[in-house]
Structures are given as C-alpha cells and as structure tokens.
Design a protein that fits this description.
The complex is a heterodimer of chains A (170) and B (295). With 170 residues, chain A is mainly α. Chain A has nine helices and no strands. Chain A is elongated and about 60 Å long. Chain B has 295 residues and is of the alpha/beta class. Chain B has two domains: 119 residues, Glutathione S-transferase Yfyf (Class Pi), Chain A, domain 2 (Up-down Bundle), CATH 1.20.1050; 156 residues, 3-Layer(aba) Sandwich (Rossmann fold), CATH 3.40.50.11810. In chain B, the strands form two sheets. Chain B has a four-stranded parallel sheet. In chain B, strands 6-5-7-8 form a four-stranded parallel sheet. Chain B is globular, with a radius of gyration of 19 Å. The two termini of chain B are 33 Å apart. The chains are: A mainly alpha (170), B alpha/beta (295).
C-alpha cells in the first residue's frame, strides 16, 4: 500500500492554478461520478490510467504526484469522456491544461522536445527533401517545399524555444 | 468548387496513397484542388506543450487560405481537421485568445478574419459532393465487400467545435460513404485506435488497437476503410507487430476511403496509390476482377 498523502505534501493552490489555466477552468465542477474513467479506452486496457483519480488528486492538491507520475501523458485525446461528462468538465482539455503546466514547470517529455526540434527544423514533423519529392513526383504528386522560418518564428514568439534550444529562459 | 488541400506532416510523406486517391477522386467530381506551398504543420503536436502554439500555427495556415480566396480548406488527417476547426472555434468564441493570436500573426505579417471553412475530405465528399452524385458515378460497385468503416475520434469530436456535424460518438457519414460504393459496412463500437497514446506508452496503445482489430475480424471484415493517417499507423503499420505479440493473424487490408471510392468509380488501381498499402489485398483483387469480368 502506498503511504497516504498528508497535509505537508499537498498544495491547495494547485486547483486554483489549474482553474486559471486555459482548458482547466471547469475542474471544480467534478462530482466524481467516474463517467470519464468508465468511458476511457486507455483505461480499458491499462489500469494505471484513471482520469477521475487524476482530477481528484489535483483537487486535493497532490501537485507533485500529478505532475511527476506522468499519468496525464497517457490520455489519447479521444474526447469520449468530454462528450459524456454530465458536468461538462472537458476532461480532455483539462488533461492538456495539466500537461501545459507540467511543461512550464520543467517536466516536458523527451518525445515532445524532439517534436519541437523537428517543427523548428522542417516546419513539419517529417522532413520533405529531394528524396521524398522524387517519390512524390513519381506518383504524380506536386513537390512540397519546407517552409520552416515562420514556424520557428512562432515557436520563438510563443516562448517555446526554451524547451529545446540551449538558451536561458526569456 | 475551389478548395485548398491541407496536407499536414504525415500525409505528404507517409500516406501518399491517401493523397493521390483523394486528388484523383476530387478531379472526377470536378473539384478544383489547389496547393498552398506555404502551409506548414497544423500545430497539433505542440498543443501538449503550450496550446498557444497550435492556435497561432493553425491561424497562420488559415490566413494563407483566406488570402488565396478558396472556398474551403480540405484536410486529410483527423488531427489537422480538429486543430484547424478548433482554432476557428476559439478565435470566434474567446476574445482574449483571439487578441493574442492576432498579435502574433501581425508580428509575422498575417491577418486572419476567421472566415475559412475547414472540411475533412470525407465530410467534404459527404456534404459538398453528396451521396447521390457519388452513387451516379459508381461504375464498379463493390458488391459483397464487407468493410469496417473507421472514422476515428477527431472526425466528429469534440462535438462543440463541429457544430452539429454527424453523431459525435458513432458517426454515420463514413458508413454511408462506404455503402455508396456498393460495399456493406459492419457495426463497430467506436473505440479510439490508440494513436494518441503511442508516443507515451506503446504497449498500451497497441492493446487499444488490438481491441478494435479483434472486433473487425470477429465481425467478418474483408478490409478496413479509414480516413486518418494516425489510425493507419495503428491498424495497418502496427498490425504485424500486434499479430506477433498476441499470436493471432488478422491479415486485414487497410485502405483509405478515397482509395475504396476510386475503385468503385472505375479508376485504375495504379492511380490510387495501392503500392503503398502494406497488407496484401489479393483476396479483394480477386473479388474485384471476378466482378469486372461478370460486368
């Protein structure tokens, strides 16, 4: 049995932080009916993912547990829970809000760093160079040119380059 | 109708069969499809990092389409569809976000008025071309083909952003599109393919895909027709891996809906990108050839 979470491990401001984050506004509406968990296709094959538990850990203030456990990254974003939630909590958007908080607090998964690097480098997740374009031409498809500059500029404007470029935070 | 085709990241590199078939089919119906070379990734992959990133990336793409004066942006990938549609929705309903996005766009030299219609290719075929026009053009009905039509999550969800299109949980438009080719469809419980979880935990994602593959197989599918490259990653590109893991054999061909439609329209299969499809189609080709011979 894991140790119970007690007061000095809890951060009561976490629920406020989430409800002020885009997508997390409706977290306090949850009345714990478990419709999300019972609808969840990830949960159906993997017991370690339980959206209701994440919501209630967050409401309790178990910030460290929520952010460090990595559970929020398992959500497949299928939106089934969001469609069914009787309190319209928007659970999928809530998971995204917690992900955005986790990233800002230094817990960005390696896969997302790699994706940001690709977007910066190619403007897309996959390179399209001569090799790819040759194959496209053979199929009668038009050439596609990489337009990375403006995508890299967007990442700069939004302040996301600090997650993958080795530079001090702005 | 003049539309811009939004390719996104995966389709122009890894799902050229989907792209080729859609372009070919659209031409058959007289749709003018243009390419905008400045399009980039829709922004979806970065939503988990900071939701402002996809808003600005999507708005930039939509601004490019607006500038070009097309009637709609037609998307092939469900994630692109969702991201571009959601961006329209946010910009129309959240003035605070709208202002921030407009500021970033201005910095890049763009302005987006929020007027651009976004249509998934399947929705485009269903709503703008229509089942009746499709049926009248079918010259090679796929009679006796049992097809598992798999629309994928972001085709209709979150319902809020799609403003009443189809039934969010169990959409029917793809089934009707498949049936318009003369094929039969199966009843499926629409569970997620697992694509969204693949990066975080492969084992879990593959189990999710397996649940649906099992269902398709049990219900006697000859093939799967889908409309999203992520679903394709799970059901086609990972099918062999799942077979090895669980010791079953699905042997279930996976094709993109425009490929299926193209066959029914009598377009030669070489023009529909089938060399890219990985799972043997032999049984279906035999059916098709026998049908063609009977005329």
């Amino acid at each position: 049995m894991p140790e119970p979470l007690i007061d000095d491990q809890l951060d009561p401001s976490f629920r406020v932080q989430i409800s002020q984050e885009k997508g997390g506004e409706k977290i306090t509406r949850c009345f714990a009916c478990a419709t999300c968990t019972l609808s969840c296709p990830v949960r159906a094959v993997d017991d370690s993912f339980n959206p209701r538990r994440i919501i209630h850990l967050a409401l309790l203030g178990a910030k460290q547990e929520v952010l460090e456990s990595g559970f929020v990254w398992l959500c497949s974003s299928c939106y089934l829970c969001s469609e069914r939630c009787p309190q319209d909590v928007s659970v999928t958007e809530l998971m995204c809000a917690i992900r955005n908080i986790a990233v800002r607090e230094g817990r960005i998964p390696a896969a997302y760093i790699a994706q940001l690097e690709l977007l910066d480098k190619h403007g897309r997740l996959y390179e399209i160079g001569d090799f790819e374009n040759k194959k496209r031409t053979k199929m009668g498809l038009p050439r596609v040119e990489e337009k990375r500059e403006e995508v890299a500029r967007i990442l700069e404007l939004v302040g996301a380059t600090r997650y993958y470029r080795k530079e001090p935070a702005p | 109708m003049r539309v811009a085709l939004f390719l996104g990241c995966t389709v122009p590199v890894r799902a050229t069969n989907y792209e080729q078939a859609f372009r070919r089919v659209a031409a058959e119906f007289g749709t003018e499809v243009i390419d905008i070379n400045d399009f980039s990734c829709c922004g979806f992959p970065a939503k988990a990092v900071d939701r402002m990133i996809p808003l600005v990336m999507a708005a930039r793409n939509l601004a490019l389409a607006e500038r070009e004066g097309v009637e709609a942006v037609v998307t092939l990938c469900n994630a692109c569809t969702e991201t571009l549609t959601e961006t329209n929705h946010v910009l129309r309903h959240d003035p605070e976000q709208q202002e921030k996005v407009a500021g970033h766009l201005a910095n890049l030299g763009y302005r987006y008025d929020g007027s651009m219609t976004v249509r998934h290719a399947a929705r485009f075929l269903y709503q703008e071309i229509g089942l009746d026009r499709i049926r009248t053009k079918v010259t090679q009905p796929l009679a006796g083909w049992r097809i598992a039509a798999y629309p994928g999550c972001h085709y209709t969800k979150p319902a809020e952003i799609y403003e009443g299109f189809d039934r969010p949980e169990r959409p029917i438009s793809l089934n009707l599109l498949v049936e318009a080719t003369g094929a039969e469809t199966l009843e499926l419980e629409g569970t997620c393919c697992g694509g969204g979880t693949l990066g975080a935990k492969e084992e879990t994602a593959l189990k999710m895909a397996r649940m649906t593959l099992d269902q398709m197989k049990e219900r006697g599918a000859d093939a799967v027709a889908l409309i999203c490259p992520f679903c394709d990653v799970m059901f086609e590109q990972n099918q062999k891996k799942i077979e090895r893991q669980v010791g079953v054999e699905y042997g279930l061909p996976v094709l993109y809906y425009p490929q299926l439609l193209g066959l029914a329209l009598g377009i030669p299969r070489e023009e529909l990108g089938f060399s890219i499809n990985r799972i043997k189609m032999d049984r279906l080709w035999q059916k098709l050839d026998a049908q063609a011979m009977r005329g």
